Amino acid sequence: xxxxxxxxxxxxxxTNGTISAIKGQQRNPERVNIxxxxxxxxxxxxxxxxxxxxxxxxxxxxxxxxxxRARDTVSKAVEAALRLLTVRPRTEKELRDRLRQKGYEPxxxxxxxxxxxxxxxxxxxxxxxxxxxxxxxxxxRGKRMLTQExxxxxxxxxTIAETIDEAEIDEVAAAIVVAxxxxxxxSSLDPIVxxxxxxxxxxxxxxxxxxIKTALDRxxxxxxx
Length: 225
Description:
By secondary structure, the chain is of the alpha+beta class. About 60% of the residues lie in helices and about 10% in strands. It is built from 10 helices and 4 strands, in the order E-E-E-H-E-H-H-H-H-H-H-H-H-H. It has helices at about 45-50, 60-85, 90-100, 105-120, 125-140, 145-150, 155-165, 170-185, 190-205, 210-220; strands at about 15-25, 30-35, 40-45, 60. It has a 4-stranded antiparallel sheet with strand order 3-2-1-4. The longest helix has 26 residues, at about 60-85. It is rod-shaped.
């Protein structure tokens, strides 16, 4: 009997019947394919098959088959989310967006997110702290830009405000770091041109005018009133 692919269109699969075979998948030993009356019906994890009492000879109703398929969709969504989290931390919004792009239904996404949150793998506050710390160390920027970035990631305003306050960011010091690095590359430019370009760069990093002026005065020298 040929093993059916895991992504066989659901409309072409049997909706009920007697379990005639349980076969391990070649590409993923942790998953098994379930056959009803000789025809591939659905797939699931070995662990879930054991817990749910799936065995050869058991008759499955339409509702039971639909339930197993729904459970497996959630399992797949969880696996996809965990793979994304191993690459880098993500917010709930980012995970939801990526799972939606992969074609998962809203109900499966909700269940997957709930399961991952229960395991403690999804924490927007922890993500925000890591994001701010990483930016501050490697790519300094102003509080305004940090707030905008975290909002785009789906972190709520209260969490953002608390995170940035706790970080005690010295915006002038951060702007000086950026300005000094860029100023070295502009040493051959006219001072006025260099200052103008640095002002634009720092503004794009989210620093306000007062912070920019203070930083540039320290790096390039004060301008005449």
